[in-house]
Write a structure and sequence with these properties.
GO biological process, one term (chain B): tricarboxylic acid cycle
CATH class of the largest domain in chain B: Mainly Alpha
Number of domains of chain A: 1
CATH architecture of chain A: Up-down Bundle
Function (chain B): Two distinct, membrane-bound, FAD-containing enzymes are responsible for the catalysis of fumarate and succinate interconversion; the fumarate reductase is used in anaerobic growth, and the succinate dehydrogenase is used in aerobic growth.
Number of strands of chain A: 0
Oligomer: heterodimer
Helix content of chain A: over 70%
Catalytic activity (chain B): a quinone + succinate = fumarate + a quinol
Largest sheet of chain A: none
Pathway (chain B): Carbohydrate metabolism; tricarboxylic acid cycle; fumarate from succinate (bacterial route): step 1/1
Bound molecules: iron/sulfur cluster, FE2/S2 (inorganic) cluster
Number of helices of chain A: 5
CATH topology of the largest domain in chain B: Fumarate Reductase Iron-sulfur Protein, Chain B, domain 2
CATH class of chain A: Mainly Alpha
Helix content of chain B: 25-40%
Largest sheet of chain B: 5 strands, mixed
CATH topology of chain A: 3 helical TM bundles of succinate and fumarate reductases
CATH superfamily of the largest domain in chain B: Alpha-helical ferredoxin
Strand content of chain B: 5-15%
Largest interface: A-B, 20 and 21 residues
Shape of chain B: elongated
Cofactor (chain B): [3Fe-4S] cluster; [4Fe-4S] cluster; [2Fe-2S] cluster
Distance between the termini of chain B: 61 Å
Order of helices and strands of chain B: EEHEEHEEEHHHHHHH
Number of helices of chain B: 9
Number of domains of chain B: 2
């Protein structure tokens, strides 16, 4: 058993499952948006669309999915290429710093997303 | 004349690896890559590689030939040579001991992790532990592995994390014992695999399937392990 404390769910299985489920939610959301955009949108119809509670909830779901998906995905990329084995202690420093940066960015986007969805 | 280019490196005398070129006369025969190496070694005895059975059974001559891993002894020139050129390198991703010989310690350490032996703590029967033909059939496509490391050393996930990702060869053996009806340690085995590296570093690229000289399918075995973990946890 390899320990990994900075991964999303600490367990490989849960990360894997979250990655798959969030991927499906994101796909559904992008198809939903694409359908709406293809039919043509203006300010009034777009605002009416997002006035509906279920659209807000669906959007929040997509934002949270994106957050989890990005965390898991970036963590996998960083732990592949920025490791102590490949770069010595620089690898650890770079990896942890970038991971922190990714986390803060994700956090800001989630808060901002909620603000946009419910703030207007 | 076949242009043969061989990776040479002797850490005691060279500061860095180099490629040595040879012109080789196949005399129109479709030789195996190992035959070419043997004949070249007869001329230049310093060329170093591993080999033993020369018939695809021992797994000691896993090499990278024109960019693809395989066993030199069962890879005919007609299969690997393109544009009259044959480039032979050691298996990628492992430290080179000398020329085409790599240090397999990391590969074996991962193999050791999966406890590749039958575990059964119930009292042993008088003669043997029986298995139905159906249960025995579940081991087909798993037990044939000869640990040549062609698969694991072609796997990018193993290149980056050979210390944490078990790799296709180890995982195929892991599933060989998970699938064995006579093994009673299934739960303990699975518990050791549920971290983000051991199994889940596999991204399904299938390089392993592409190169296995025994035609085995580690990706499929990894999928089975994942399903076992899933049904155990949900
Ligand atoms: S699975 Fe195939 S390629 Fe991998 S070690 Fe076994 S025999 Fe070699
Ligand atoms: S399928 Fe998995 S084990 Fe096989 S080469 Fe790809 S990442 Fe490696
Ligand atoms: S020499 Fe034994 S497998 Fe090639």
């Amino acid at each position: 058993m390899v320990t990994a404390v900075t991964s999303f769910g600490r367990s490989g299985l849960s990360d894997w499952l979250v990655q798959r489920v969030s991927g499906v939610i994101l796909l559904a959301y992008f198809i939903f948006i694409a359908c709406n955009v293809i039919n043509g949108v203006d300010y009034v119809s777009w605002k009416a669309l997002y006035a509906q509670t279920w659209v807000k909830v669906f959007s929040l779901m997509a934002i949270l999915s994106l957050a989890a998906h990005a965390w898991i995905g970036m963590w996998a990329v960083f732990t592949d290429y920025l490791t102590e084995r490949l770069m010595g202690s620089t690898g650890n420093f770079l990896r942890v710093t970038l991971q922190l940066l990714v986390l803060v960015t994700i956090f800001i986007y989630v808060v901002w997303g909620v603000q946009i969805l419910w703030g207007y | 004349m076949l242009k043969v280019s061989i990776y040479r490196y002797n850490p005691e005398t060279d500061d860095k690896p180099r490629m040595q070129d040879f012109d080789f006369d196949t005399q129109g025969k479709d030789l195996m890559v190992l035959d070419v190496l043997e004949q070249l070694k007869a001329e230049d005895t310093t060329i170093t590689y591993r080999r033993s059975c020369r018939e695809g059974v021992c797994g000691s001559d896993g090499l990278n030939m024109n960019g693809k891993n395989g066993l030199a002894c069962i890879t005919p020139l007609s299969e690997t040579v393109k544009g009259n050129k044959l480039v032979i390198r050691p298996l990628p991703g492992l430290p080179v001991v000398r020329d085409l010989v790599v240090d397999m310690s990391m590969f074996y350490a991962q193999y050791e992790k999966v406890q590749p032996y039958l575990q059964n703590n119930t009292p042993a029967p008088a003669i043997e532990r029986l298995q139905s033909p159906e249960d025995r059939a579940k081991l087909d496509g798993l037990y044939e592995c000869i640990l040549c490391a062609c698969c694991s050393t072609s796997c990018p996930s193993f290149w980056w994390n050979p210390d944490r990702f078990i790799g296709p060869a180890g995982l195929l053996q892991s599933y060989r014992f998970l699938a064995d009806s006579r093994d009673t340690a299934t739960d303990e085995r699975l518990a050791k695999l549920d971290d983000p590296f051991s199994v889940f570093r596999c991204h399904g690229i299938q390089n392993c399937v592409n190169v296995c000289p025994k035609g085995l399918n580690p990706t499929k075995a990894i999928g089975h392990i994942r399903n076992m973990l899933l049904s155990r946890a949900t």
